[in-house]
Amino acid sequence: MRTSFLVSDHTGITVDTLAHSLLSQFPGIEIRRENHSFVSSAAEVDRVVEDIDAAARDGETPLVFCTLVDPALRERVHRSAGICVDVFDSFLPTLERALGVTASSAVGLLHGVGNDQGYQARLEAIDYAMGHDDGTVTRDYDRADVILVGVSRTGKTPTSLYLAMQFGIKAANYPLTEEDFGIEGVPEALHGVKSHLFGLTTDADRLQRIRQQRRPGGTYSSLAQCQHEVREAEALFRRANIPSLNTAGMSIEEIATAVVARVGLRRNWRE
Amino acid sequence: MRTSFLVSDHTGITVDTLAHSLLSQFPGIEIRRENHSFVSSAAEVDRVVEDIDAAARDGETPLVFCTLVDPALRERVHRSAGICVDVFDSFLPTLERALGVTASSAVGLLHGVGNDQGYQARLEAIDYAMGHDDGTVTRDYDRADVILVGVSRTGKTPTSLYLAMQFGIKAANYPLTEEDFGIEGVPEALHGVKSHLFGLTTDADRLQRIRQQRRPGGTYSSLAQCQHEVREAEALFRRANIPSLNTAGMSIEEIATAVVARVGLRRNWRE
User: Which helix (H) or strand (E) element contains residue A116?
Assistant: First the structure.
C-alpha cells in the first residue's frame, strides 16, 4: 500500500485537512497515512525524510503533504524521494506578490498561540453548550445564538459542541418529547426565543439505527416510535414556522456548517 | 480593507483552514473574510464572481481561496478579477500523475456523507466525554483512551471534547481538588487506570485570569490559590510519574494534538 506522510511544524490540522480533502478525490485508492506533527528542527525533518526514503525503497513512491513554514526545512523535505504537495511553496509567492510583503516564516501563528480572547470565547461557548445540553437548563436561553430543537439522536448535542468549539457560537439544545407534540405553537420553555430556534430532523430508519446502537430493544429504538416522533417533530416545525434541516447521512461538520449558513451565524472568535 | 473570498462547494472547512493557515503568515495585514460555502451550481458561482468583481472595483484586488471540485465551476471562478489560490487546480494534476488515475470530481466525498460508522464512533466518544466530564462519573474509566487530570480550568473539558469530536478518542477528565493533594500515589478513583493518565497544568497567573473570568473575586480565582493548586498538581504528576503538559498560551487544537502525539493515540474514525 502507498503511504502518505503528513509533515507539519505544528498541530498538523491544516495538512491533515488538506490531504484528506485531496485524497478523497481518489476514493478507490487506499493510502496509509502517517502523521508527523510538531516537526520543527532540521534533525527532526531529516528523520522523517529517512522514513520517506525507506518507504520509497520498499514500495510505491510515497506522497508527502507538507506545511512547514521554514523554507530551509521545506527544502530538506523536497530532497526526499516522495512526491511533494507543499502548501506554502505553492501559494506563498502568489500571496506575497498580491500583498506586497514577505511571509513571516514564523511557526505557530495559527491556532491562537497566546490568544487569551479567542480561548475565552470558545471556553464560554463550550460551557454554555454543556450547561444547556438536552434541555437540562432552559433559563438563559436568551443568551443563545441558536437553540437546536429535535427528537433524541438527530445530532443536537454534537452540533452544539461543534458550533461552540469551532465557531465560538453559543448553542443550546432542546429535546422534543411526547409532551411537546400536538400542542399549539412551541413548547413553553421556548416561548420568547422563537426567533432563535432551528429544527433538526432525520429519516426514521436512520434514527432507528442510531438509537438501536445506543439503547437496543425497547420502544425508544423501535421503527414505529421513530416514525411517530419524526412525523410529530416535523409537523411542529411546519406549524410553528421553525426552519429545519434533515441531518440524515450528514456528518457533524456538515450539519454545523449548514446551520451556520442557514441561520446566518458568524464565528465569534478568530485567532 | 482587502477582502478574501472563501469559495467551496461543501462545508468550507478545508478552504477555511487553508486560507487561515496561509494568511496567518502575513500577521500585519488585516483582511476581511467572506465565506461562501455550499456553492454548487454555475449560477451560484456566478453570483460569487459578481461579488468578487465588485470588491475589485471598490478597492484592493481581492484574494480568492477556492476548493470547488468541479473543474467547470473552478474555471468560472478563475475568470473573476480576484487573485486565485486554487487547491484542486494546483495539486490534483500532481496526484493524478502519481496515482495513475483521474480525480473523481465528486462533491461531498469528504466529511463522511452517509458514513454511519464514523458518525457513530464520534457520537460514542462525545457521549463518553460528556458522561465523564469533571469526574462526575469515575466508573467506566477502563473504557477511556486517555484520562486528563488537572486542576480546574487547565483545559480538560475542551480538550476531551475536541479529542472526541475530531479523533473519536474517548477521553475522561478528572479534576484535582484539595483532597487529592499531598496523598501518596494517585487519587483512589484513578487506581487501576494509571497508565491512561495525562496531566494538564498551566501557569498560575494565566489560571487566575481564566478563573477570574468565570467566577470573579473569592478564593477560587485568587492568585495564591492558583499558585498553590498548580504547585500541588505538578508535585502529584512528578510523584506518580504522570506525563504532563503545560497548556499556558495553547489553543484547544494545540493541547489536543499535543496529547495525541505524546500519548501516541490514534484517530478512531476516518470518513
Answer: helix A116-131
pLDDT grade for B112, boundaries at 50, 70 and 90: very low
Is B144:B193 a contact under the CB 8 Å cutoff? yes
For residues B185 and B192, give the distance between their C-alpha atoms in angstroms, rounded to a whole number.
12
Residue position matching grid coordinates 500532481: B94
| Strand partners for B158 | none
In three-state form (DSSP H/G/I as H, E/B as E, the rest C), the secondary structure along B243-256 is CEEECCCCCHHHHH
Instruction: List Cα–Cα distances, A12 to A35, A65, A107, A161, B1, in angstroms.
Output: 8, 10, 12, 22, 30
The answer to whether B246 and B127 are in contact (CB under 8 A) is no
pTM of the model: 0.88
Contact A63, B95 (CB under 8 A): yes
Task: Tell me the H-state helices in chain B.
Answer: 13-23, 42-58, 71-78, 87-99, 116-131, 156-167, 204-214, 223-239, 252-263
SS3 A155: coil
| For chain A, percent of residues with pLDDT exceeding 90 | 77
Cα distance between residue B163 and residue B54, in whole Å: 42
CA distances from B150 to A32, A71, A199, B207, B263 (A): 35, 38, 37, 12, 16
So what's the ipTM on this one? 0.86
- 3-state secondary structure at position A85: strand
pLDDT digits (tens, 9 = 90+) for A196-210: 999 999 999 999 999
Cell of B198: 495525562
Q: What angle do CA B108, B112, B114 make, to 5 degrees?
A: 90
A63 close to B (CB below 8 A) = yes
Contact predicate B240/B194, CB 8 Å: yes
Does A131 reach chain B within 8 Å, measured CB to CB?
no
A161-182 per-position pLDDT tens digit: 999 999 999 999 999 999 999 8
The answer to whether the Cβ–Cβ distance between B251 and A271 falls below 8 Å is yes
A99, A102, A260: which to substitute to probe chain B, counting the most B Cβ within 10 Å?
A99
pLDDT at A114: 46
Q: Which residue of B has its CA nearest to A101?
A: B26
